[in-house]
């Protein structure tokens, strides 16, 4: 039996590299550590997701929450997938102490699970306790829930509970500014992300159809990593649309010389959607908009084209 270890960057479950594994002649892909985000029926070779549960000091987390919030109150418990079992245990202990706790869910993710681009929305509790060793996934939850009054992040490695905040107004102003700049663009570059399965061919097809409908010129480029330096090599583009990670536009879009829009932002720029009062974190939600992966038109991840005609 021959085993190959893929050494490419794997940011999350969207980076499952079944295409790369097939190119190496593999018969089976083992993807370690993430949830089954890209269904196994859509991978080009059989894929086995190996889930990982990391143990945390549940009692210490509970003690930190109780010390910070001495009066019992309703809590929403969320985090990254590897700490989910610890959240389930913490929920039970907190409820025994009088803290009514929920683990909100956005399907098809598990209860309490949050991705950097997908989060439960309309959380009713005024306090969110988030278990993660960084802010990326937490920010997804914060962007989707500006109505929540207090976000607390428990880092299971440093064993610290910290209050976190997010500048919603600055983010929305930056993204609206990019969208406004894109309104007058005529030449659009479309980036289909090739890092694992970040790029969805069905969303690519929709983006091309929208640009054609609005009489915009476009071409498609494949990239695994998107950076200002790479895009500066093609200075004649008025606007870029990246079908990879929507957080790249949200977090880093203002660092590029020209607008770099997510599929949602393109819908807004072309007046196919309004700019929502709460910026959507629904890229892998089953209830996401037409720019999302599990929308009815996109969930098969196929552009329905053939090799001869391409994506026309």
Topology:
Elements: H1 18-23, E1 29-32, E2 47-50, H2 58-68, E3 75-79, H3 84-96, E4 101-102, E5 127-131, H4 136-144, E6 150-155, E7 160-164, H5 168-182, E8 187-193, H6 201-213, E9 217-223, H7 228-231, E10 239-243, H8 246-252, E11 260-261, H9 263-269
Parallel strand pairs: 1-2, 3-4, 3-5, 5-6, 8-9, 8-10, 10-11
Antiparallel strand pairs: 6-7
Helix pairs in contact: 2-3, 5-9
Report on this structure.
This protein is of the alpha/beta class and 312 residues long. Helix content is 27%, strand content 17%. Helix 2 crosses helix 3 and helix 5 crosses helix 9. The longest helix has 15 residues. It starts with 17 loop residues before the first helix and ends in a 43-residue tail after the last helix. The model has no long low-confidence stretch (mean pLDDT 93).
Keywords:
312 residues; alpha/beta; 5-stranded mixed beta sheet; globular
């Amino acid at each position: 039996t021959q085993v190959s270890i893929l050494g490419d960057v794997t940011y999350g479950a969207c980076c499952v590299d079944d295409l790369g594994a097939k190119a190496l002649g593999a018969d089976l892909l083992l993807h370690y550590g993430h949830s089954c985000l890209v269904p196994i029926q859509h991978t080009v070779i059989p894929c086995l997701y190996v889930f990982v549960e990391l143990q945390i000091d549940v009692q210490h987390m509970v003690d930190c929450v109780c010390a910070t919030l001495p009066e019992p109150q309703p809590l929403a418990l969320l985090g990254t997938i590897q700490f989910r079992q610890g959240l389930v245990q913490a929920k039970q202990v907190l409820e025994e102490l009088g803290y009514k706790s929920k683990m909100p869910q956005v399907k098809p993710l598990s209860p309490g699970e949050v991705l950097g681009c997908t989060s439960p929305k309309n959380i009713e509790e005024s306090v969110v306790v988030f278990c993660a060793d960084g802010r990326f996934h937490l920010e997804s939850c914060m962007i989707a829930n500006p109505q929540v009054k207090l976000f607390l992040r428990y880092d299971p490695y440093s064993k610290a509970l910290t209050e976190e905040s997010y500048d919603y107004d600055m983010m929305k102003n930056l993204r609206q500014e990019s969208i406004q700049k894109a309104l007058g663009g005529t030449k659009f570059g479309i980036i289909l992300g090739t890092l694992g399965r970040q790029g969805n061919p069905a969303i690519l097809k929709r983006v091309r159809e929208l640009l054609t409908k609005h009489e915009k010129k476009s071409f498609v480029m494949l990239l695994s990593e998107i950076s200002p330096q790479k895009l500066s090599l093609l200075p004649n583009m008025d606007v870029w649309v990246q079908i990879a990670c929507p957080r790249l536009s949200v977090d880093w879009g203002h660092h590029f010389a020209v607008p770099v829009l997510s599929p949602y932002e393109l819908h807004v720029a072309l007046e196919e959607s309004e700019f929502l009062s709460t910026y959507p974190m629904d890229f892998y939600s089953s209830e996401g908009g037409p720019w999302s992966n599990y929308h009815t038109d996109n969930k098969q991840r196929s552009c329905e084209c053939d090799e001869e005609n391409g994506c026309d």
